[in-house]
Amino acid sequence: MKIGLDFDGVLSDCGKLKSYAANKLYGLYIPPEKFKKEIVIGGGHLTAEQYHNLQKMIYGTREMGLLMEPVGGMFEAISQLLAWGHTILIVTSRGQAELEIAKEWSVKQGLALDFIGVGCSVSKATACVGLDVYIDDDLDKLEPLVGIVEHRFLFSWDYNSHLDEGTIAERIGSWVEFCKTIESL
Ligand SMILES: [Mg+2]
User: Which residues make beta-bridge pairs with 91?
Assistant: First the structure.
């Protein structure tokens, strides 16, 4: 099968990095698992401008960007999926500069993966044509894939647990669960 993966929040754990950056930039402690735009801005922890600056720093600078930690179980799962003969494509909303950092990070982690960066606020639908499976931690990114990608999965985190995925996607709690699910398709 052709499997598409989102990058931030699926391969890399950006919640931890956002939490670290909020502390460094603004002296605030915001737990990683709560670090999602609508929660942080909606809850009055950061202004929209502060959030934007933080994002620019963690996605757009190598000093911070390369500090991302991998999501637990990711390496084992990707090796397993490749060993089963599946094809993997990373489809991310990162723009060009941020994409280069993600690629550099992946190479440093020993991952040889193909990437498509569609750019911020652009639908992933065109890039995902031909994929059998796609997993993202952002429900908004999965919605346009209905009718395009047959098997859509939402990588479950505390920060998206309040959302009703309905028929848009099936929730997956971990990389181990993702592998088991792929095996059963
Ligand atoms: Mg993501």
Answer: 116
Residue 82 alpha carbon to ligand 1 centre in Å: 21
Q: Is the pTM of this model over 0.85?
A: yes
Show which residues are catalytic: 6, 8
Pairing, β 2-5 against β 133-136: parallel
Residues lying with their CB under 5 A of ligand 1, a single-atom ion: 6, 8-9, 137-138
Q: Give, in degrees to the nearest 5, the angle at Cα 140 between 46 and 155.
A: 90
Q: Which residues contact 149 (CB under 8 A, 6 or more apart)?
A: 4, 128, 131, 132, 133, 134
- 85-137 residue pLDDT tens: 999 999 999 999 999 999 999 999 999 999 999 998 999 999 999 999 999 99
